[in-house]
Write a structure and sequence with these properties.
Main location: secreted
Number of domains: 2
Oligomer: single chain
Keywords: Carbohydrate metabolism, Hydrolase, Polysaccharide degradation, Secreted, Signal, Xylan degradation
Structural class: alpha/beta
GO molecular function: feruloyl esterase activity
Subcellular location: Secreted
GO cellular component, one term: extracellular region
Shape: elongated
Radius of gyration: 28 Å
Largest sheet: 10 strands, mixed
Strand order of the largest sheet: 1-2-4-3-5-6-8-12-11-10
Helix content: 25-40%
């Protein structure tokens, strides 16, 4: 009885889909499709417009719902109307529904091996047409969507990505799913779906987990980062939940007023699926973020306060004691400054959402920064640099002072190129990373340091909470999204490369004279004192470092008629602890230069 009830529900779903999408119905093949026979099974094949036999194409398989047909699915999805990049196949189920992997339905009881049938379809198309290597995709509606999840679980080595529409996930498959390798998955569901409910349901024969549980399960199987991005799209009618492991994505689009249907008034499902497939290699970015092309790489840029005129304020992050260095440190400062200024935070390659590279250093970033600003059409700038980012800021000025109108600099705890300071900077751990980098990179690739990185992130989050307090401007979601990128193996390796290059960065920095042509203000905290107290055996050297830093910072500011601002009992992460101090120093520079 339960099987019959479920069958009737899914047949009703197929009929409802026909009504809601206005597809008509019937089993006759659309004019632009070819019926292909495989023994007693079949599929419809649609070639791209202007198909050329010598050209390689992507392959997309689209699966109809229970009680539907391949012709129904073609009319409903009509993928070829949106793109000429794909050969599209619409397979026909061997019975009323697909063997979706729950071991509970008619197809399973009849022993129909739909996974093997899909293998045959792919092989048949591969024998007839030229396919791009590694570019096979699947999409499914309703019960066909449940089967598409079965493909993700049991054919992850064949499919680069799959898309599931109007189907959460069977409880049985949720428990048994074990992909051989990560696979990208997109889900789109109406929150008012009553056929295969968005929030799932409990049943002894065929239970469903919720859509959010399903996408979280695939994210976990992909070893995705723990925090999902949450965005509201399409005039607040679509909610997006997006997980990523740095390579594969698991995304759920929840349509607020959507029911059991393929197409939605605020969501063109076919177009969205193809866009998802097209953008698998691009990270899902938080609000106000973008990627800027720098050579053959892309750098992450966050822009706030775009409406303000005058020079752009450019924030460059430096490292904390864990050498974590990205725009998370500006999750409070940037919104504060954006109330008055046009503000960019720019992540170096290998940090934040920027792409990775084997050649990473503060010297490299000075060059990349110039290219990024050119791409952003920003010629007049004020640089705010934290800690070791002073190296990039100084090199940028040396190399680009004729190409850019660099109005001023504000340095927060800058590296100082004095003898004792250099001996501290170039000692442990920088010297260790330089000596051991070749062996360290493959060691990091095993994930050996991921847990310790996670522990450091937890400690940093707690520390940041203490520094920020209840400041309402703090963007914790952005802070956490950027911070968790540090867990990625690629980013762990990138950090190692940067630390190994740090000594050479300092040599290039020390070879340059002190800035004199533009105003330079320096905020000098007493963060060194914590290291002096924690390392009594090195207290003398560290105290000399602190003294030289104070002297150099004061001289740099006085030489350029900037401000020297000394702070006691202050944290190195001043942008989180005292953003108002940084803003006041920036206001002073703008006032001195009479900048808008």
């Amino acid at each position: 009885m339960k099987l019959q009830l479920r069958f009737l529900q899914l047949v009703s779903a197929a009929l409802l889909a026909v009504l809601l999408t206005g597809c008509g119905g019937g089993d006759s093949e659309p004019d632009n499709s070819n019926l292909m026979k495989l023994g007693d099974r079949s599929y419809l094949l649609v070639l791209p417009a202007n198909y050329r036999a010598e050209q390689e194409y992507k392959l997309l398989l689209a699966f109809h719902g229970s009680g539907g047909s391949s012709a129904d699915m073609q009319r409903t999805a009509d993928f070829n109307r949106y793109s000429n990049d794909y050969i599209v196949a619409y397979p026909q189920a061997g019975t009323i529904e697909w063997n979706e992997g729950c071991n509970c339905n008619i197809a399973n009881r009849l022993g129909i091996d739909d996974l093997a049938f899909v293998d045959e379809v792919i092989a048949d198309i591969s024998a007839r047409h030229r396919l791009q290597q590694g570019e096979i995709y699947a999409a499914g509606f309703s019960q066909g969507g449940l089967f598409t999840q079965n493909l993700a679980c049991n054919r992850s080595n064949r499919f680069k990505a799959v898309a599931v529409v109007a189907a959460p996930m069977s409880g049985q498959l949720w428990q048994s799913c074990a992909p051989e390798q990560p696979v990208s998955i997109m889900m789109a569901m109406g929150k008012n779906d009553t056929v295969l409910p968005y929030n799932g349901y409990t049943d002894s024969n065929f239970g469903l987990v919720s859509a959010k549980q399903a996408i979280a399960r695939f994210a976990s199987l992909n070893n995705s980062l723990p925090l999902a991005q949450q965005q509201t799209l399409a005039t607040e009618q679509v909610e997006l939940l997006s997980y990523s492991n740095g390579r594969q994505k698991a995304e759920l689009f929840s349509i607020k007023q959507g029911q059991h249907q393929w197409q939605f008034s605020q969501f063109d499902t076919s177009a969205e699926i193809l866009q998802f497939f097209q953008q698998l290699d691009s990270p899902r970015l938080p609000e106000a973020s973008s990627l800027v092309q720098v050579g053959d790489k892309r750098m992450h840029v966050r822009l706030m306060g775009e409406q303000h005129a005058g020079p752009a304020v450019v924030l460059l992050a430096g490292p904390n004691e864990n050498y974590h260095s990205d725009s998370a440190w500006f999750a409070l400062l940037q919104p504060l400054l954006a109330e008055k200024y046009r503000v960019y935070s720019i992540d170096r390659l290998g940090n934040g959402f920027s792409e990775s590279d084997d050649d990473l250093s503060y010297r490299r970033f000075a060059e990349d920064l110039a290219t990024a600003l050119q791409q952003l059409d920003e010629q007049q700038v004020v640089i705010v640099a934290m800690a070791s980012a002073s190296i990039s800021a100084r090199l940028f000025y040396q190399q680009q002072q004729q190409a850019f109108d660099i109005k001023a600099m504000l340095l927060v705890d800058p590296d100082v190129p004095t003898p004792n300071a250099l001996s501290v900077y170039q000692g442990y751990p920088a010297d260790w990373y330089l000596a051991n980098l070749e062996a360290l990179l493959p060691h990091l690739a095993t994930g050996a340091w991921t847990e310790r990185t996670s522990q450091k992130l937890q400690a940093e989050r707690s520390h940041a909470e203490q520094l920020v307090g209840d400041n309402p401007l703090m963007d914790w979601h952005y802070f956490d999204l950027i911070s968790q990128q540090r867990l990625l193996i690629s980013h762990q390796q990138n950090r190692a490369r940067e630390i190994a290059a740090y000594s050479a960065d300092l040599d290039a920095y020390a070879a340059l004279p002190m800035l004199s042509a533009i105003p330079v203000s320096v905020i000098d905290t007493d963060f060194e004192q914590a290291q002096i107290d924690a390392n009594p055996e090195s207290a003398e050297l560290l105290s000399l470092w602190q003294q030289e830093s104070t002297s150099w910072n004061r001289q740099q500011a006085e030489q350029t008629n900037g401000q020297y601002i000394a702070l006691n009992n202050s944290d190195h992460l001043l942008a989180l602890q005292q953003p108002e101090t940084i803003k006041a120093a920036l206001d002073w520079l703008f006032a001195q230069l009479q900048l808008p």
